[in-house]
Structures are given as C-alpha cells and as structure tokens.
Amino acid sequence: MFFLSRTQIITALGALALAAYVLDLVRRRKLSEEYSLLWVIATVVIAALGFSTPLLTWITRTLGFMGESSTTFAFGLAFSLAMLLYLSLKLSRAGYENHALTRELALLREEVEAMRRERSGGQS
C-alpha cells in the first residue's frame, strides 16, 4: 500500500487551493476564462501527482528523476515556461495591434484636422 508523504499532501492541497482561487478570480471577473483554463489544468495535474503515489512514482522512474518531489517541481517548471511563452505571444500580438491602432488613430486625426481646416478656410 502506498502512503502520501507530507510533501505530496502539501503540494496537492496547495494545487487545490490555487485552483479554487483561480475559479474565484474568474467568478469575480478578475481573470478571463481563457487564462483560467490553463491554470486549472495545471493545478489539477499537480494535485493528481500529489494525491496519486503510484502515478507519481511511475512518472518519476520513467523520466529518470531522483525523487518524486523533483517530478512535481519539473511539471511546475514546465508549466511556468509554457505560460511565460503563451503570455509573451499574447503580449506581442497586443503590441502589434496597439501599433496598428495608433497608426489608424493618427490617420483619422489628420483627416479630421484637414476637414476642420477646410471648413474654417471656407467660412473666412
């Protein structure tokens, strides 16, 4: 029979607490559903690894890690890197869109100023 170590219990309960917090942020509309899905999936995986000693041991041996806590840490690190890459892509896209909107706004301002000059020039 397998037992849960203190580290596994803390990791699993921490993951569940984080999942509950993420869901609360979504409920209060402070975090979009798009991002929350990634967080919930990650916390469920970490919680499953924390609560399932046979699964954690099998993955640890398969990957060749020294200990189960290393496996859990590696999954957390992989998630962090994936999330950083995803957010970098979103930030880059937002920057490109912001640049395009700025150019469009400048063109519209120029057009409005030209119309104002025409109107004030014709009334003089």
What is the compact description of this entry?
The protein has helices at residues 6-27, 33-51, 53-63, 68-123.
Give a written overview of the molecule.
This protein has one domain (6-123). The chain has helices spanning 6-27, 33-51, 53-63, 68-123. The chain has 124 residues and is mainly α. The termini are far apart. It contains 4 helices and no strands.
The class by helix and strand makeup works out as mainly alpha
Mean pLDDT level: 87
Given the structure, what is the number of helices?
Answer: 4
Helix content: over 70%
Question: Which secondary structure elements does this structure contain, and how are they paired or packed?
Answer:
Elements: H1 6-27, H2 33-51, H3 53-63, H4 68-123
Supply the key terms:
single chain; 124 residues; mainly alpha; 4 helices; elongated
